[in-house]
Amino acid sequence: MQSVLKLFDFNLFSALDVLLVAFLLYQLYNLIRGTIAANIFIGLALICLLYFVVKALDMKLLTTILGNFMNVGIIAVIVVFQQEIRRFLVLVGRNASLQRNRAWWRYFLGKNEAEKDNYKRIKPIIDACKSMKQTHTGALIVFVKDYDEQIYQTSCEVVDAKISKRLIEAIFQKNGPLHDGAVIISGNKIKSASCILPLTDNSDLPAQFGLRHRAGIGVTEANDATALIVSEETGEISYAKHGRVKMNISFAELEKLLNKDF
């Protein structure tokens, strides 16, 4: 009877506990939704469900086999979801620091001034996209908040230049030596160009997606980054984040997305 009463002993900290778990599950869902990790998670959940079924049916051989898998379940989850766990921890750490700095920035300069300053950064990118859309110039621009030299500089040409419409257009010029690969932008600078990026493993993407789209989606799956893709065939602009992509977006929508994420 006492154990039953303890079960219903719900206080403020119990409510906080439930809310925190719900928040963590929601963040996990956002990280893996639409990615190959979602299918892996479903597979692991089915194996766990199968274990409890065969255990209840007293099927000793399968129970033993699946039981050994369950014993190393935590290690298996860490190995399989290492990219998602890394991205989640980076997201938590960044929100704890940058959000506070952004609040101070808006407090001292005012919201309007902060938005004007951000618009000055993204305007050259939007203008370059307008020009490349008209000329059907393919482009892949990746935005990262923390530029990891070990990840990007090993497969890129270092640029470290101010963001400029003409520079972006020159990099992606069809006959230029740097047009293959991606441009990496961090802060107020173009850090590197001609970067070779990992391709996505997602098999559910539209058939018309080429290597440029798959690389743009792949880099947002493996890192805390966003990608802007201009199609060489159609001039269509796409925007990728967390392994998911928005296709054929307008310049007004592009401005909102960049103002929010960049």
UniProtKB/TrEMBL annotation:
Transmembrane spans: 12-29, 35-54, 61-81
Reactions catalysed according to its record: 2 ATP = 3',3'-c-di-AMP + 2 diphosphate
Pfam families cross-referenced by the UniProt entry: CdaA_N, DAC
PROSITE patterns, sorted: DAC (PS51794)
A molecular-function term among this protein's GO annotations: diadenylate cyclase activity
One GO biological process term: cAMP biosynthetic process
Enzyme Commission number(s) of this protein: 2.7.7.85
Tree of life domain: Bacteria
Keywords tagged on the record: ATP-binding, Cell membrane, Membrane, Nucleotide-binding, Nucleotidyltransferase, Transferase, Transmembrane, Transmembrane helix
InterPro entries in UniProt: C-di-AMP_synthase (IPR014046), CdaA (IPR034701), CdaA_N (IPR045585), DisA (IPR050338), DNA_integrity_DisA_N_sf (IPR036888), DNA_integrity_scan_DisA_N (IPR003390)
Domain DAC: 82-251
SUPFAM superfamilies: YojJ-like
Family statement: Belongs to the adenylate cyclase family. DacA/CdaA subfamily.
Protein task: Catalyzes the condensation of 2 ATP molecules into cyclic di-AMP (c-di-AMP), a second messenger used to regulate differing processes in different bacteria.
Subunit structure and binding partners: Probably a homodimer.
Protein name listed in UniProt: Diadenylate cyclase
